[in-house]
Amino acid sequence: MSKASNAKETWVAFDLIGTFGLITGAFSIDEHPMYIYAVDGSYIEPQEVEAVVLTNGDRYSVMVKLDKPGDFTMRMASLTMPQMFTGFATLSYRDPKGPSPPSKPSVGYINDIGANTTADVRFFSQAAMKAFPPAPIAQTADQTVKVAMRVAGQSYNWALNETIYPMGLDNDTPLLFDPQPERHNNVTITTKNGTWVDVIFQAVAFPMPPHPIHKHGNKMYLLGQGDGLFKWDSVAEAAKEIPSSFNFVDPPRRDGFTTPAALQGPSWMAIRYHVDNPG
After folding, report:
1. Cα 252 to chain centroid, rounded
2. How confident is the model over 55-90, as pLDDT tens digits?
3. Lowest-pLDDT range, 4-8, 50-54, 117-121?
4. Considering only CA atoms, which of 150, 126, 4 is closest in space to residue 64?
5. Which one-letter DSSP state was computed for residue 117?
6. Cα dist. 25→44, 78, 80, 206, 265 in Å?
7. How far is CA 12 from CA 26, 93, 107, 111, 173, in A?
């Protein structure tokens, strides 16, 4: 936590990090709106919100104006049905030149299950986030890779298309040490430096929870998502049929996205990234 102040205003900065694995949570600070100014370590045009939802690996940088001395509850509530729990902390500050604030409970923006307490509570909108400064994106891709996420026998085994990466690391060499870049097995994706690549993630079996997708080495853009199977050969082909499902002007840019849940049927998510960090 750090503070920046002048003669009139005092602000505090927080970094929010989703360090959990199987849950999704909502965070807020009672009676204090947050200005989210960076996501996954990159600046965005600030969004003023009362709450933000965090998934596995998410990172948000926020500024909070300290303008009403007192004790205020900070809430982190699980949104995942198997584990409904809430954690609390306290934001406490005083005006050294003013009287002691009254001791009273603070009023929350969210409740114990992460739902908004009033209709005017604003949650952070990933769809509305804009990179600052603007980050240009290619309008077409040089390569398209489609992967189908499915359960592979046990609840902890997942597969991309038909390939299951072995979980028994005692007997198998991790890809980190044996990348085999020419092995087209759906686990290794081979690309060329300087190109733009589209990856289509499809949840082909249902029900299926959201999957956190993380890209090491550079950022990626969320072009669009939807229900059903991705029946097209490319994003360009899909955009001709369902243009409202895509954003090629200023799509969200970060290193991690969460796929839409497949509750009633399959779902898909399309991301695009520029290959500029060989490795």
Report:
1. 10
2. 988 999 999 999 999 999 999 999 876 667 889 999
3. 4-8
4. 4
5. S
6. 22, 4, 8, 22, 24
7. 20, 11, 20, 23, 46
